Structure formats: C-alpha cells, structure tokens
Amino acid sequence: MTTSQTKIVHIIGHKNPDTDSICSAIAYAHFKNLTDKRFLFTPARAGKINQETRFVLEKFGVPVPNEIESLAATVSDLEMKKPVSVRARDSVQMLALLMREKGVRSLPVVDDNGRLLGIVGLKDIARHYMDSVEFTELSRAPIDLDILLKTLEGRVISNSKKASSLAGRILIASMQKGTILNKVQSGDIVIIGDQQDIQQELINAGCSSLIITDNIPVNSDVAGSAEKHGTLIISSPHHAFATVQLMTMSVPVGAIMCTECPVVGLYTPISELRKKIVESDYRSAVVVDSDHRLMGFVTRTDLLKPVRKKAILVDHNELSQAVDNIEDAEILEIIDHHRVGDISTVAPIYVYNDPIGSTCTVVAGIMFLHQINIPAEIAGLLLSGILSDTLILSLSTTTDRDHQTAERLAGMAGVSLKEYGKELLHSSINIEGRTVAELIASDMKEFFISGKKLGVSQMMVLDCEQIDIREEELLAELEHLRILNGYDLAALLVTNPLSSSNERILMKGEKWLVEKAFNLKFEGDVGILPGVLSRKKDFIPAIGQVLSMGSSE
Fold it and tell me: Which residues pair with 45 in a beta bridge?
C-alpha cells in the first residue's frame, strides 16, 4: 500500500523490449530519482529481455528490472491507513464504542496474532440487541469475567474457584421464593436483589453465579457460603434491567461476527475490489497477506477518488506496443525517438520525442543538460542502447549526436567504443539453439497505419545460410502470428550488419504493401530489400507513405 510520500512511478518501455528500451528506462529512473523527490521512480520491463540485453546488464552489473504485465491499478495503489480492528474476544460494548469513536459502520475481526477471522458491522450489533429478548443462555458464548466486570463497572465478592468466565442459563429472581427455587438448576446464573434468604438457597441449589444488583451489600453468611460452595458472586451498581442489558453487551464479538467476508490481496485489481465491495452486505473488503494477516480495510469511500498507477513511457508511444492496460494508467512523460503514435492523455504532459538513433541518446542528453553525475554502469547502459539501436552507429537513423554521445559515454564507462561495439554485436547475433518463435518474438513490434495492422520483427545474422535452412519454419511462424493477431501483414526483416546490400524480408499477408513501397516485385514470400536497415526509418515510413496515398492491391 502506498502513502503520499512513497508514490511509485513505473518507467517502462515497449513490449518485447530491446536493449534501448531497457537501458533507457533504467537510466531515466536514475535521473528522475536524483531530480524529482515527489515520487519513487522504478524501471520496469514489459516482457522478457533478449540475449543481447542480458549480456549488457551482466557486463555492467545492473539487475534486470521487474517485469510488469499490466498497469491496471491494484489494491497496493490505494492510500490506506493502518486498519482498525477488534479481536474476537472483545466485548460487543467495546466494539460499539470503537465504531462510534472511529465513525465507521463495520470492522474486521482478528485473532491475537492478527489473522482475519471475520467482519462485524452495525447491523450485527442491532440484530444481537434485538435478539437479546431471548438472552437466557450463555453456554454457546460464555462471557469473559474481566470483560463483564468492566462493562458492568462491577466487582467480585466471592470467587473461590477462580472462575474466568460465565456460562449457563440466566434467570432473574423476580418471582416468589418457591417459584424461583423450582426453576433453578445447577450451573445457572441468577440476577437477584436484596433477597438474602433466597441468595442462600440459590447457593445451596448449585447456582454457578449470583449477580447482586443495585450495589446491595452481601451478607457475610452468604459470602461465606459462596466461598464454601465455589459460587461466584458479583456486585453490580445497576438495577436488574440495566444489568441484563449490559450483560448482553458483554458477549464476545466472535459470537455475532460474520465469518464470510470479501477478502482481497495487495495485487487484486481495483475493478475486482470494487465489484466485491458493491456485492458485500458490509460495503467493504478486507486486505490480507499470504498468511491471512490483516493488512488493510477498504470501504466505498476509499474508492471515491480515482486510483491509477503512474508511468513514464520510454522508447515508444503507441498503444499496440505498450504494456497492457496502459489506458488505465496516468502517463506523466513520454521519452522517445519514433514516429508519433496513438497514445493520448487526459492532462498535458512532458513529451520529448527526438528523431535520432536511440532513446538512450535522448536520455543521455537530458542528463548532460542537467549536469548529472553519470556512474560508469549507467554510462555503459546508455552506450549499449545507442550501439544496439543504431547497429553500431551504422544505420541510416544514426545522427552526429549519436556519434558524439556514444564517444562521451564510452569514456565514462571505461570501454573502447570500437572493441565494445564488436563485443555487443557478437552477443546479439547468435541464433543457434533458439526456436523460430523465439527469434521472431524477440523484437516484434505492432503498428497501426491507416487502418492496417502490421506485425514487423527484425533480427541480425552474419551468415544468411542460417536463414536459408530455417526459411520454411520462419514463414510458417509468421503465418501463425498473422492469423493469431489479425495482422494484415506479418514480416521479418533480416539484417546483415556487415553488408547493406543484401537485406532480406520474409512476409505473410498483404505483401503488395512492400512491393509498392519499394517498387519491387516478389515471386514468393521472401525477397531482398537493398539498403533497408532500419525498421523505423526505412521500412515503416515507406509502408505508411503507400497507405497514406490510398493505394490498394
């Protein structure tokens, strides 16, 4: 559960995260935590990291960010105070006083270890009070002696057996001596006034307890007989009717509580929590941990204010690429270098979208501008994101700023730009031992352009024979993804970082889009796209141009 001092902001990249996405999230979280003390900024990821990213994180000793499957608000996002509760052995009177003091209509009931036992509300107190007309038996719910004395403001006259509770039938000695003695049984509790002769007879008859009303003094002979027989004698300052009423309020909460109550955990979605509260007779839900210990108590009032996770998006700004339920989150910023997508916000936000080679270049520039000290490991991550997204500064998206920033970061990270680039490249092109599903999914992105839904993946290889051998498998997987996700076109761009003249594309679906975009004609589902190294600058814009002109097959 959050407090106003520790609100978390998740900094997260796109699904199927690449190195630029992960590294920019980690670096920007580092920057924000130094410059903005309102929140706790934490990097996150929207999927499994790829082989290259794992190599980078291990090299610079940075832990893998936590994975987030959804940004839908959960119970943990609520600002809840420490819950007020009662124990099952507390009295109904104490419960009523506590509820009046706190201004609440219901409370959770716990045992002495804080584990949830049930829930109790005003309606349970009212029902108990109405049922007190038949308050004649304590065998099923004995009254704790200490609680009774506190409720009655009474005192013990005799308790030779050291009784700790009262149990048995309850009788009021409001009738003639013969009548009451005929009714009384061994173990009964009798409420009586100043009838000293009857008091003695009741003790002899085996009553377990006598409650003497109106602070009437107890005869020494009666007290002595009670000590001898082990009869509990209590003096009450109230008259008989009030004494009975107060006794009903001494019943333990456990006797009137409901054991069936709506229970949620910290990661229960708010939508599910709201449904449980609406359906509950108590209009509330109890928050417990894995050991069923009480952690919080949520009522309808707590849900009057909208509850939303806070997020900063890096390296993307399209719904199709964002973590699930992004529309339910409060987006605070977008840091990106792609085309403007379809994510919208309710309020104005800070957006930094720069058409350069890498989001890590954008983040590094922000840190340079603010003169933030960049630790070697953060510099290493930023450098890795730049080299990865620009294919070692060789793609057409690479700018002078990418070159300059990479040089500067290499010095901060203590690595050789050229040698580290080779090392990074080698870590990213090993496709042996990986299934075609893994190869395609590792860098798959979705695009919605002019009513068309595209799924475009990209991978790097040094030896095209590796693709030739698995071509049919790759095409079959593309067709599977096209049908599964409803793509109009599913494509795989195969990039050789050592050659810009033999870029291959495998595709399923409306391949005419590619043919018109690049003025080519393909015999089958595989073709060559010379010089098309960048998905975001070379491939997608060309497809978008075709669709924007209203071209059709």
Answer: 67
Cross-strand bridge partners of residue 331: 311
**What integer is the mean pLDDT of 365-394?**
95
Contact 250, 94 (CB under 8 A): no
Q: How far is CA 253 from CA 86, 89, 259, 323, 347, in A?
A: 8, 6, 11, 46, 48
**SS3 sequence of 61-101:** CCCCCEECCECCCEHHHCECCCCCCEECCCEHHHHHHHHHH
Per-residue pLDDT tens over the stretch 448-488: 999 999 999 998 887 777 788 899 999 999 999 999 999 99
CA 381 to chain centre: 29
pLDDT for the residue 133: 58
Distance CA 149, CA 236 (A): 8
Q: Report the pLDDT averaged over residues 497-523.
A: 86
Tokens 């005003």 sit on residue: 122
HSE, CB side, 13 Å, CA atoms: give it for residue 161. 14
- Return d(Cα 385, Cα 363) in angstroms, integer: 10
According to DSSP, residue 543 is labeled H
Sheet holding 116-121, edge to edge: 86-87, 106-110, 116-121
How many degrees, rounded to 5, is the angle at CA 332 between CA 328 and CA 333?
120
- The per-residue pLDDT for range 225-281, each reduced to its tens digit, is 889 999 999 999 999 888 888 888 888 898 899 999 999 999 999 999 999 999 999
CB neighbours (10 Å) of residue 436?
19
The full DSSP string for 232-246 is: EEEE-SS-HHHHHHH
Asked if 247 and 135 count as a contact pair (C-beta separation under 8 A), the reply is yes
Distance (Å, rounded) from C-alpha 236 to C-alpha 251?
17
d(CA 551, CA 546): 6
Distance CA 461, CA 425 (A): 10
Q: Domains of the chain by range and CATH? A: 8-73+309-428 (3.90.1640.10), 86-129+254-303 (3.10.580.10), 142-250 (3.40.1390.20), 436-548 (3.10.310.20)
